[in-house]
Amino acid sequence: MRKRITVLGFFSEDIGLTCFFKTNYRALLADGYEFNIINIANYRPARELKHFGNYYEVPFYFTDIKDKHFLRKRRAFNHQLHQVYRECLLNSDVIHLYLNMLCDPVSIVYARRLGFDRVIVHAYSNLEGTMNLTSRQLQKVGRRMAEVYGTDFLAVTQGAADFFFSSRIQRSPRFKLLPDGIAVRKQRYHEEQNIYYRKRYDINENDFVIGNIGRFIDVKNQSFLIDSFNLFQKINPNAKLVLIGDGPKLEEVRQKVYQLHLEGCVIFTGYLENTEEVQNIFDVFAYPAESGGLSLALLHSLANGAKAVVSQRQPAEVQTLGAVTALSIDNPQSWADEFHSLSLETNNRFEQSYNTMNELIEKGYTISTSTKLLRKLYGKPQLEDDY
Q1: What pLDDT, on a 0 to 100 scale, did the predictor assign at position 368?
Q2: Residue-wise over 161-179: b if at least 16 C-beta within 10 A, else e?
Q3: Residue 283, helix vs strand vs coil
Q4: DSSP letter at 131?
Q5: Can you say how many angstroms the Cα of residue 344 is from the centroid of all Cα atoms in its chain?
Q6: Comparing C-alpha atoms, which of 99, 196, 219 is closest to residue 150?
Q7: C-alpha–C-alpha distance, residues 89 and 139, integer Å
Q8: Going by C-beta distance under 8 Å and a sequence separation of 6 or more, which residues neighbour residue 338?
């Protein structure tokens, strides 16, 4: 077995996959594993991953076939990926592909054809509810190609598994569910940080705070959250909405806030490095995402003791957690009503944090669980002297 594991993924600065990688692979580095990292992010690539091994950037082309430069972008991506794979094969025979969809399975096909002995296909999202007819057809083709060229199959949730893999693959011993592991205890509630950041953002002690963390893109559905918060704020004028993140839809959402005259009670923080501290001000984490991808920010806020209101498109595993309420994203009023109900509850935040942390640990959302599965998957790290 060669020395390094090659890992490919869309590692943007502000997405859960990057957080998962940094948290879990730091532990693997300490065990002696070494990595080639191929980053295909085309937005804010997480270049701090250079500290984890040999680092390559091959920005993924946009998949809109109506784009007049589509073919040129695709050829350029394929050519660059081919070159990077060739270089990685000099010291690696295992590649782990963290993917959001299979509309273009070239990363899988090239990996196998060029000579990786093991091609691990990791279903890291469930975008079923966001795809048009063309994307669905391409996804079906990609699923078949993944079965042909993949050797191992992982999924972060059962919904992601169903989106990526056939029932035949899921019955195979080559398939495993691998829940995202977080530093659960690190997320526990800190009263002093709640006080500090409320003062920093001019939020009163008794204001009811709804929070959201994520990129401003259509699938995250912050526009719907503004609609529901607008209805709730009419009932509770002391409510505040804190939106952490940036992205291409940020200005569009900001304009909507101005149009509804909510600028005095909606706070845009921009992208933050210290979300684990700022989340202490949240009474509720609201996540009306249109896709079924698992949100690590949601898990962090739950461990921090916040209640959560999420889209019914979120993974079934998340919807069973005690502090989570899942609602349809067809009716903003139902979200406003739920916010109102939660605002009337009296909760011991320390106790809520403690109980949810224990629940997450019991269900396996820990670094120790995920890294144990990754070690088993990768095999024992091989040192230079073993060649």
Answers
A1: 94
A2: bbbbbbeebbeeeebbbbb
A3: coil
A4: -
A5: 31
A6: 99
A7: 28
A8: 309, 325, 327
Question: In terms of C-beta density within 10 A (0-12 exposed, 13-18 middle, 19 or more buried), how is residue 197 classed?
Answer: buried
Cα(24)–Cα(366) distance, integer angstroms: 9
Per-residue CA distances from 122 to 9, 108, 280, 377 (Å): 10, 11, 32, 12
What token pair was written down for 260?
């509804």
CA atoms of 320 and 334, how far apart (whole Å): 19
| pLDDT (tens digit per residue) in 30-50 | 999 999 999 999 888 999 999
| Cα distance between the two ends of the chain | 9
Q: Which two tokens stand for residue 38?
A: 């191929």
pLDDT, residue 135, reads: 87
**Cβ partners under 8 Å of residue 237, min gap 6:** 265
* pLDDT-derived band at 64, boundaries 50, 70, 90: low
Note the pLDDT of residue 384: 53
Task: Report the DSSP beta bridge partners of residue 45.
Answer: 12
The residue assigned the tokens 């001000």 is 281
Task: Give the separation between CA 108 and CA 30, rounded to whole angstroms.
Answer: 28
CB-count exposure of residue 2 (10 Å: 0-12, 13-18, 19+): middle
Kindly list the strands in the beta sheet with 239-244, ordered across the sheet, starting from the edge strand earlier in the chain. 266-270, 239-244, 208-213, 284-287, 307-311, 324-327
Q: Are 234 and 260 in contact (CB under 8 A)?
A: no
Quick check: 41 and 60 in contact, CB under 8 A? Answer: yes
Q: What is the DSSP string of 321-374?
A: STTEEEE-TT-HHHHHHHHHHHHT----HHHHHHHHHHHHHHTT-BHHHHHHHH
CB 64: neighbour CB atoms within 10 A?
10
